[in-house]
């Protein structure tokens, strides 16, 4: 082939054309934000965009860095060649009718709407009241196991994880397991694997949150092992609390015709329904609550005055065993503020993802249907435009007289809108129960190795959950002299 008078072999021409086309395709979205008039971080590597940076930086560091660079709170980046609009503005974006592909739960919109409708009544006051004694029993085990470590340094996260797994196992599955008996219980082992901490795994799991299809291959074995433990066991426990079994039956009934028509194996279908919903509940409910508890106890250890104030308020309501009735929990207002303030400083879900289901306008920016929008929760919760002295732990900012200062969407630890955390009330209940119980028994204290609040650094877990970077936090209780370590 002759080009500009030069003889060029055909294969060279074809390769050049293919590479040019690939380059064009791999970068063709990189001018999206320029066209929209939105400030953005330019990307140069075809198909990769900012993936390398996103995979190697923790989400919290990432959000902090770009908050400084883009003070307008709305900017663009590229996950691969997909343009993603980052929003750190307390706007009702999350209220938009949308689907959520990369958030904690990944299911299609229609399927999840159905699941959500069936599950929503599970978390009414009446149902939570039924769960209360079961949760109290789990909290007694938490305290018992913590007591048994007298004097020895402990990783509080291990105990908190055992507790939250125990609560899910008994409330969602009706199984009385006591996974707290040992910190390396099989369930915890598989859960840890699922939420993978080692660096290599982290990179894989980070990839997971960007490429859903790939992820199902990479994680499927870990998930299968983990879920298998739950689902292989009979669902024979506490009937009334076993809400996932009820859900599986409801899904089954709804699909009865289809199963009969296609002559499908009833039991396998049932198993599949349970697997899917078990996955949702374990992944969304276990690590989130355990990590929040971990941060809560850490904050108590480094703020002894606040811990004392909370302890005094607990004594007014709970008995000497750290127990009170379900109704009396309402009286523990200061506890509510302390938990809220913990979730403000340490929002476990650092970001929310939405896909615009129609053209919308946010802060004067026209966002086309189909664009991925990423809400930077971590950043909003620590933004000095919304919070006075945002890096200070101050539960009083949630006192009723100060609530008017809080902008509605500046505090969304459980998300907001149609996909808001379905079990936020259960999460709050299980945290309150174990906090009341354990603060009655123990006093958490910082020791020489405990990092200052402002020195804490983070690493992300599989699905971008906020986690301290290293096991450097210590706290101890006075009465039985326990040393705790944050993981
Ligand atoms: C402190 C504890 C928890 C925190 C901070 C938390 C936070 C969140 C957040 C940020 C979302 C995404 C909301 C959105 O996209 O707008 C979410 C969704 C969800 N959470 Fe939680 N969560 C917690 C505990 C739990 C527990 C204990 C369970 C179950 C037992 C649970 C089940 C779910 C489910 C099923 C969803 C998906 C809702 C949907 O997509 O419709 N979460 N959670």
From TrEMBL:
<comment type="similarity">
    <text>Belongs to the cytochrome P450 family.</text>
</comment>
<comment type="function">
    <text>Cytochromes P450 are a group of heme-thiolate monooxygenases. They oxidize a variety of structurally unrelated compounds, including steroids, fatty acids, and xenobiotics.</text>
</comment>
<keyword id="KW-0812">Transmembrane</keyword>
<keyword id="KW-0503">Monooxygenase</keyword>
<dbReference type="InterPro" id="IPR001128">
    <property type="entry name" value="Cyt_P450"/>
</dbReference>
<dbReference type="InterPro" id="IPR002401">
    <property type="entry name" value="Cyt_P450_E_grp-I"/>
</dbReference>
<feature type="binding site" description="axial binding residue">
    <location>
        <position position="421"/>
    </location>
    <ligand>
        <name>heme</name>
    </ligand>
</feature>
<keyword id="KW-0408">Iron</keyword>
<keyword id="KW-0479">Metal-binding</keyword>
<keyword id="KW-1133">Transmembrane helix</keyword>
<dbReference type="Pfam" id="PF00067">
    <property type="entry name" value="p450"/>
</dbReference>
<keyword id="KW-0472">Membrane</keyword>
<feature type="transmembrane region" description="Helical">
    <location>
        <begin position="6"/>
        <end position="26"/>
    </location>
</feature>
<dbReference type="GO" id="GO:0020037">
    <property type="term" value="F:heme binding"/>
</dbReference>
<dbReference type="GO" id="GO:0008395">
    <property type="term" value="F:steroid hydroxylase activity"/>
</dbReference>
<keyword id="KW-0560">Oxidoreductase</keyword>
<dbReference type="GO" id="GO:0005506">
    <property type="term" value="F:iron ion binding"/>
</dbReference>
<dbReference type="InterPro" id="IPR017972">
    <property type="entry name" value="Cyt_P450_CS"/>
</dbReference>
<dbReference type="InterPro" id="IPR036396">
    <property type="entry name" value="Cyt_P450_sf"/>
</dbReference>
<dbReference type="GO" id="GO:0016705">
    <property type="term" value="F:oxidoreductase activity, acting on paired donors, with incorporation or reduction of molecular oxygen"/>
</dbReference>
<protein>
    <submittedName>
        <fullName>CYP3A4</fullName>
    </submittedName>
</protein>
<dbReference type="InterPro" id="IPR050705">
    <property type="entry name" value="Cytochrome_P450_3A"/>
</dbReference>
<keyword id="KW-0349">Heme</keyword>
């Amino acid at each position: 082939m002759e080009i500009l008078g030069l003889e060029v072999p055909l294969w060279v021409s074809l390769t050049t054309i293919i590479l040019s086309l690939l380059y064009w395709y791999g970068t063709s979205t990189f001018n999206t934000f320029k066209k929209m008039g939105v400030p953005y971080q330019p990307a140069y590597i075809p198909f990769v965009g900012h993936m390398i940076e996103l995979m190697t930086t923790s989400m919290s560091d990432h959000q902090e860095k770009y908050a400084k660079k883009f003070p307008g709170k709305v900017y663009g980046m590229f996950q691969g060649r997909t343009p993603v609009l980052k929003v750190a503005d307390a706007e009702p974006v999350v209220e938009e009718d949308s689907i959520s592909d990369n958030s904690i739960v990944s299911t299609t919109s229609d399927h999840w709407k159905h699941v959500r409708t069936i599950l929503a009544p599970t978390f009414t006051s009446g149902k939570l009241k039924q769960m209360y004694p079961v949760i109290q029993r789990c909290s007694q085990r938490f305290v018992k196991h913590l007591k048994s470590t007298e004097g020895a340094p402990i990783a509080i996260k291990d105990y908190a994880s055992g507790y939250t797994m125990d609560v899910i196992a008994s409330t969602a599955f009706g199984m009385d397991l006591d996974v707290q008996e040992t910190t390396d219980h099989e369930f915890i082992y598989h859960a840890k694997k699922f939420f993978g901490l080692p660096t290599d795994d982290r990179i894989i799991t980070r990839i997971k949150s960007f490429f859903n299809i790939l992820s199902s291959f990479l994680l499927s074995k870990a998930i299968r092992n983990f879920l298998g433990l739950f689902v292989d066991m009979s669902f024979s426990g506490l009937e009334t609390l076993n809400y996932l079994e009820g859900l599986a039956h409801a899904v089954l009934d709804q699909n009865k015709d289809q199963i009969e028509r296609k002559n499908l194996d009833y039991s396998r279908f049932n198993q599949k329904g349970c697997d899917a919903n078990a996955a949702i509940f374990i992944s969304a409910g276990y690590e989130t609550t355990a990590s929040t508890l971990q941060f809560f106890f850490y904050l108590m250890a480094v703020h002894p005055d606040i811990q004392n104030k909370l302890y005094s308020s607990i004594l007014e309501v709970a008995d000497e065993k750290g127990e009170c009735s379900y109704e009396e929990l309402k009286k523990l207002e200061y506890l509510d503020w302390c938990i809220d303030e913990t979730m403000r400083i340490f929002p476990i879900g650092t970001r929310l993802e939405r896909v615009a289901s129609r053209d919308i306008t946010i802060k004067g920016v026209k966002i086309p249907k189909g664009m991925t929008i990423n809400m930077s929760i971590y950043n909003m919760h620590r933004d000095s435009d919304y919070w006075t002295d945002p890096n200070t732990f101050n539960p009083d900012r949630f006192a009723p007289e100060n609530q008017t200062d809080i902008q509605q969407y500046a505090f969304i630890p459980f998300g907001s809108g149609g996909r808001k955390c379905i079990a936020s009330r259960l999460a709050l209940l299980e945290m309150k129960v174990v906090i009341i119980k354990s603060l009655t028994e123990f006093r958490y204290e910082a020791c020489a190795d405990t990092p200052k609040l402002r020195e804490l650094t983070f690493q992300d877990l599989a699905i971008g959950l906020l986690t301290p970077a290293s096991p450097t936090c210590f706290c101890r209780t006075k009465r039985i002299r326990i040393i705790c370590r944050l993981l």
